[in-house]
Amino acid sequence: MADELEARGVRTLELDGEGTRLMNAWQGEDRVVLVDAVRSDGRPGTIHRLDAIKGRVRKNWLRCSSHEFAVAEAVEMARILERLPQSLVIFGIEGKSYGYGEKLTPNVKQAVPEVARRILLELGSPPQN
């Protein structure tokens, strides 16, 4: 997904999900789109979208990380510290297996191009067919 987005002029950054690194990465940015695995007991491959400026991030929703201070905590801490970007949209893909080193399941792998398409639309850049 990152390669496709980069080819369309979208700057991407892959991080491990540790909260302070996330907060530092979006510092000074106006618009941020974050993609992560989510766990909500939905069907694997289901795509979720959250406008993190308008709504709170459910702490257990992004609980796929081994970090205690991960995405949800970073967003809410940045909110308290008034360090959120002007726009922060989170796309979550419902996973199936969350173990370290797990490969993407077919349903999750199938969702990736759709998330890339939605990110381009979010940023005002229509996807190419």
CATH superfamily: HybD-like
Report strand %: 15-25%
Order of helices and strands: HHEEHEH
Coarse shape:
globular
- What is the CATH C-level name? Alpha Beta
Helix content: 25-40%
* Count of separate structural domains: 1
Q: Provide mean pLDDT, rounded.
A: 86
Task: Please render the helix and strand layout as text.
Layout lengths: L1 H6 L11 H8 L4 E8 L8 E5 L19 H10 L6 E8 L11 H17 L7
Parallel strand pairs: 1-3
Antiparallel strand pairs: 2-3
Question: What are the defining features of this structure?
Answer:
Rossmann fold; 32% helix; single chain; alpha+beta; 129 residues
Offer a quick outline of the entry:
The protein is an alpha+beta fold and 129 residues long.
Describe the protein:
The protein is an alpha+beta fold and 129 residues long. The protein has one domain: HybD-like (Rossmann fold, 3-Layer(aba) Sandwich). It has helices spanning 2-7, 19-26, 71-80, 106-122; strands spanning 31-38, 47-51, 87-94.
